[in-house]
Amino acid sequence: MRNAIPNIGLLMAFEASARHGNFSRAANELALTASAVSRHVAALEDRLGVPLFVRHKRRVMLTDAGKRYAQRVRLHLNGLERDTQEIANSRAQGYAIHLAVVSSFATQWLVPRLPAFAKLHPDIHVHLSVRSEPFAFEESGFDGAIYSGDGLWAQTQGQRIAQDGACIPVCSPAYAEQYALGAEADWRHLVHIGLESRPNAWRDWYAQLGWDYSVQASRGPRYELFSMVIMAASAGLGVGLVPEVLVQPALDAGQVVPAHSHTSPGTQSYWFSYPTYREPSQALQAFESWVVAQSQQSGL
């Protein structure tokens, strides 16, 4: 039952008025009269039982409830417009899939491989948006997700596409030369770059070597993304501890070098998943087959 959903005309009048802050400009956009827009907004307020605007002569200002509701309505209207355009133009322009991805894996591993997918499937357009936390598919508008974790999310299906692999300490070639890094190097004065979500990574690495984890080692900068850690290490800001699957392109390009031969075992994997409550499209299935094949070719 959809009885709780207001008429889309009311929602469009509200969203346009919220965006313009004026009923007349909203009316011009919607090809209505200003009085019609005003009536639509009033009807919506009556329906909700909540004031959405404060009226000031020719201007209107959103209430706090109106601001929150406008953001949500705009999101859903934009999604509905996008989906409608895609369906209407699908025969001429191909098909689109919308994926939520973790940033570092997408930038370091996935995106450089997407030209190969585009060559195989020129009629499928892949849209990527960063999501670092788990979410509910039914509320997101995403067709699938690539994320880091211990397994598939609840009420999803899919498969593992890559393992973290060993975590490698890396730095720029100049930094390695400056501190004469090697098996016998003195690490007490090095800057240790870490990841916010893995605060104990360097401590564990030190423990595996039987070294004392010094106060100096714990004071290094912390970044939100592994891609930031890699960039900081390549810029000569210190030594970063990064999964092999993410840092391999930078190693191959000579932007960074191993700072030590010891590596830490990976603890997580990257997964491709989509909801079980709906049948995946042929485009999504084609992407799944391709991304799994890519991971196998990469030895992940």
Topology of helices and strands:
Elements lengths: L7 H13 L2 H8 L3 H15 L4 E4 L2 E4 L1 H30 L1 E7 L1 H8 L3 H7 L3 E7 L13 E6 L6 E8 L3 E5 L1 H6 L13 E4 L5 H9 L5 H4 L3 E2 L2 H9 L4 E5 H9 L4 E2 L10 E7 L6 H16 L3
Parallel strand pairs: 3-4, 3-5, 8-9, 8-10
Antiparallel strand pairs: 1-2, 5-12, 6-12, 7-10, 7-11
Unreliable stretches covering 5 or more consecutive residues: none
Helix content percent band: 40-55%
What is the CATH H-level superfamily of the largest domain?
Periplasmic binding protein-like II
What is the helix/strand order? HHHEEHEHHEEEEHEHHEHEHEEH
Cα-based radius of gyration, to the nearest Å: 26 Å
CATH architecture of the largest domain: 3-Layer(aba) Sandwich
* CATH hierarchy class name of the largest domain: Alpha Beta
Task: Note the gap between the termini.
Answer: 46 Å
Largest beta-sheet details:
5 strands, mixed
Number of strands: 12
Total count of domains: 3
Strand content: 15-25%
Shape: elongated
Q: What fold name stands as the CATH topology of the largest domain? A: D-Maltodextrin-Binding Protein, domain 2
Mean of all residue-level pLDDT scores: 88
Spatial order of the strands forming the largest sheet: 4-3-5-12-6
Give a short overview.
With about 300 residues, the protein is an alpha/beta fold.
Description of the molecule:
The structure is a single chain. The mean pLDDT is 88. This protein has helices spanning 8-20, 23-30, 34-48, 64-93, 103-110, 114-120, 173-178, 201-209, 215-218, 226-234, 244-252, 282-297, and strands spanning 53-56, 59-62, 95-101, 124-130, 144-149, 156-163, 167-171, 192-195, 222-223, 239-243, 257-258, 269-275. It is elongated. The protein folds into three domains: 8-85, Orthogonal Bundle (Arc Repressor Mutant, subunit A); 94-160 and 268-297, Periplasmic binding protein-like II (D-Maltodextrin-Binding Protein, domain 2), CATH 3.40.190; 167-258, D-Maltodextrin-Binding Protein, domain 2 (3-Layer(aba) Sandwich), CATH 3.40.190.10. The chain is α/β, with parallel strands linked by helices. Strand 1 (53-56) and strand 2 form a beta hairpin. It contains twelve helices and twelve strands. Helix 2 (23-30) packs across helix 3 and helix 5 (103-110) crosses helix 11 (244-252). It has a five-stranded mixed β-sheet. The chain starts with 7 loop residues before the first helix and ends with a helix.
